[in-house]
Each structure stands twice: as C-alpha cells, then as structure tokens.
Design goal:
six-stranded parallel beta sheet, alpha/beta, Rossmann fold, 16 helices, 2 domains, nine-stranded mixed beta sheet, single chain
Length: 461
C-alpha cells in the first residue's frame, strides 16, 4: 500500500503545535512497519534537504506557479516540499504580532491545488489529508484515489470568501458555506473516511455544542467517522535515553528525576527545592484554558506551589503571564516561545503538568508528561478524558487528576488534590510511565482505516 501523507506541519521540519508532533509520529511508525509513505509538506523556505531534485508542478493559472523539491531530511527520510507564491514565511500561520497572515487562503489553497497534481502523477493507493490546509485537495482532482481526512482541531476550518468556489474543479457546491468557502465542510462530504484524533473527541464533535457548525455533516458520516487516539514517538520522548535532560531514568528507578528537578530549578533561577512545580507547555490560546491558570495564579503562595510556563500564542495571554512572572518571580516562570530542550527538561523536572483545556481533540503533553513521571492535571474533555484516569476516583488505576468542570474552581480543586497526593505519587507515576503511549496501536488502526477507504472507493467505481 502506498500512502501520500500531506500536512501543513510535521516535526522536526515544521512545528507550531500538536499537528506537527502527531504527523511526525504517525509517519515514523508507518515507515517503521515498512509501509511506503510519501510525505508532502509546504515549503516555508527554512528546510534544507540532501540529494534533492527540483521541478515545476503544473497548477491552475490563479496559483501563480508552483515548484517542488524532493530529498532526504535527517531522522525523517524522503519528503517533498511544495512552494507556491507567498508560502515561504518565518512562521506558517501568523505574523510577528500573532495575527493570521491575510493571504493564508491564497497560500494553502494554492498548496492544495499543487498537491492535487502530485496525487495525479504519483497515483497513491490512499491520500491522507490533515486539517483545512489540505482539505481542498479532492476538489482539484478529477478522479481522486481513496482519501482520508484527519481532523486535528475542528475549530480551525479555513473559512474564507466565496470567490474560491469558481476555482474548484469538482463538487464545488459541497464547499459552499453561508456565502463563503469552507474547506473542511466540503472535504467531509468528499473523502472516504474522517478520523478524529481521539474517541471522545469523535463523540463530542457530533453535538451542536462542540461540532463548530459541522455536527450535522459529521453525524451523516455514520461509521465513516473514526476516533483514533494519537500516540507519541517514543524514540524522541523517552526519559531512559533522552539526551536533552540532565539525567536519564526509568519507572523502576526514579532517582534521576531529583537530578533533573535540581537542574531545572537552577536553569530557572529558583531556590527552595521542595516546593511542588506545575509545568505548562503549549499554545497560549483560549482553547488551552491559559486564562484559567491566570485566575488560579494568585493562590500559588497558599498552595505552596510554583508554575513553569513555556509557550507562545495570543499576545494578551503572553503579556498577562509575563506580568504574573514579574509580580511573583518566586512562584511563576514564563518563557514566551518554544524551546524543545526546555520542554523535555520541564517534563523531567516538574511534579505535575497542567492542561486546563476547554476542548482538547487529543493532547500530547499529558502523555509525554506521564512517560516522564510528571503527573497530569487536566479537564475531562476529548483526548484528556481518554488518557488520564483520576487517581482519587480510581486509586488502583489512576494516572493523574481530572477536573470535571472547565473552570478555575475545578482546576484549583484538582491541583489541590494532586499536591496532597504525596504518599501515593510514586504509584501514580509508575502507572503513567509504564503505559503504552507509542504510535504502534494507533498506526495499526490507521492502516485498517486506509484499507476500508480503499475498499469503499473501489465499490463506488
């Protein structure tokens, strides 16, 4: 089976959020099993390939031209990068002020048109598209192979004006959306299977409250909508072998965590080693509930806890976190941006990782945290619900602490319960560290979806 896998991000070539980690991990696992995976990404102008070949891609005139280069990238293998006018940017989606590039529709719709030509010439058995950046592709292919769309975050649909409908070659009416163009809405009706990145999120998006306007189209899919939990690339995320942390360790011997904790404290510039540390790693957006943590921040002294935040995103949240770190330098540390090494060291050195998400299609940080022995404190939404078992509800199987409500009160209660868990903490850590969070089982389920999609497409023909 030959799979053409297309996404806007794939770690380590281009990384903004969880999409990159999920795409990179799945591709790596599929290739490890011997599957032929053809990876196609936008060319943001920052990646060097070895042994590359460059060639022009045939696209409609409105795109303004497209060029591709295919070569090898260390640790990934062969990839194809597609450049269309305006694609090369220092950040794929937003400018220096955190505002979306005004021509994102032009850039990614042009990429989809070029991707369609790659599909036509390479003739894969199945095309795996990811999120809105690639979702228009079926509308540019006359006879598209079996196609799968993964929805990583339904909140981002790429909706824009209706002028684009005139540029689509196939089933343009499916993409019409209240006077505009909606790539995800149309793709849902054109592809053979839709994958959501966790079982709970697959159920949540069938409701008006969480379906972002698309719940009726998703309900119509029936069993063609499948929830598959993301995994983690355990070759990268493994405290026993991780070169980015101070000391390696395993679940049977956690002594290395004390060394990592001390190193993290030194890096931050903190003393008082015994105060529990709560890490936060991720995008600073409303979805992630960062504002809830800001509401809780004033209680840190009474809790006897500290907050370590690494992330970037909305400027108002970043400014509020920076102010909190200035007001309480012994309780709050904030680094605006993403530092891969520091992320690993936070997982290895903190006691807890907080994820107060309002919705969370899957989430990766909670699984990464558990592998490193940092106990997750989360809200009961999406993939967080599927991966974290509350240690107060189930004392035999618990792997973290869960707030049943998405608010500051619920999170404060979960944090308080976590801090009080000192005597049980080693058991909670051990269960999280020894669980299988790898891509092995999720990849097998993806292959089954590919096979079903191919069979469905064959029947229709």
């Amino acid at each position: 089976m030959k799979v053409l896998f297309a996404a806007a991000e794939l770690t380590p070539l281009a990384r903004v959020g969880g999409l990159a980690e999920a795409a990179g991990g799945l591709v790596a696992e599929l290739r490890r099993t011997g599957m032929d995976v053809d990876v196609v990404l936008p060319d943001y102008g920052t990646v060097e390939l070895t042994g590359q070949t460059e060639y022009q891609v045939r696209v409609p005139d409105w795109v303004g031209g497209a060029w591709a280069r295919t070569g090898e990238y260390p640790g990934v293998g062969e990839v194809t990068l597609i450049d269309v006018p305006g694609m090369a940017r220092p950040q794929p989606y937003v400018d220096a002020q955190g505002e979306p590039w005004p021509d994102n529709d032009v850039r990614f719709f042009g990429f989809s048109a070029a991707l369609a030509e790659i599909v036509r010439t390479r003739r894969p058995d199945v095309v795996h598209l990811n999120d809105w950046h690639t979702a228009l592709t079926p509308a540019f292919v006359d006879r598209c192979p079996a196609t799968v769309l993964t929805i990583h975050t339904l909140g981002y649909q790429g909706i824009t004006d209706d002028r684009w409908l005139g540029h689509l070659r196939t089933d343009a009416y499916r993409f019409a959306w209240f006077g505009g163009t909606n790539p995800v809405a149309g793709a849902i009706q054109m592809v053979d299977r839709v994958i959501s990145v966790s079982p709970s999120y697959a159920s949540e998006i069938l409701t008006p409250a969480n379906g972002a306007g698309l719940h009726e189209r998703l309900v119509a899919l029936g069993d063609r909508l499948v929830g598959i939990r993301n995994g983690i690339d355990t070759a990268v995320w493994n405290p026993a072998t991780d070169p980015l942390i101070e000391a390696n360790y395993v679940a049977e011997d956690l002594s290395g965590r004390a060394i990592n904790r001390k190193a993290l404290l030194s890096e931050i510039g903190w003393r008082h080693e015994k105060l529990p540390m709560i890490g936060v790693i991720g995008r600073l957006v409303e979805q992630k509930g960062i504002d809830l943590l800001l509401d809780i921040e004033r209680f840190l002294p009474s809790l006897g806890a500290r907050l370590v935040v690494l992330g970037s995103g909305e400027s108002d949240l970043a400014q509020a976190l920076a102010l909190a770190a200035t007001k309480r330098p012994e309780q709050v540390f904030f680094l605006d941006g993403y530092d891969a090494g520091l992320a690993h060291r936070i997982f290895a050195g903190t006691d807890f990782i907080a994820m107060p998400s309002r919705f969370e299609p899957c989430g990766l940080a909670q699984m990464q945290a558990m592998l490193y022995g940092s106990i997750p404190i989360v809200t009961a939404v999406g993939g967080l619900r599927d991966t974290v078992i509350d240690a107060d509800v189930d004392r035999r199987s618990g792997t973290g602490f869960v707030s049943d409500t998405v608010d500051a009160v619920g999170m404060l209660d979960a944090i308080h319960r976590a801090i009080r868990s000192t005597r049980r903490r080693s058991g909670i850590q051990s269960r999280g560290m020894t669980a299988d969070w790898s891509w092995a089982e999720p990849a097998r389920r993806h292959v089954a979806v590919y096979e079903a999609a191919i069979a469905d497409r064959a029947k229709r023909r």
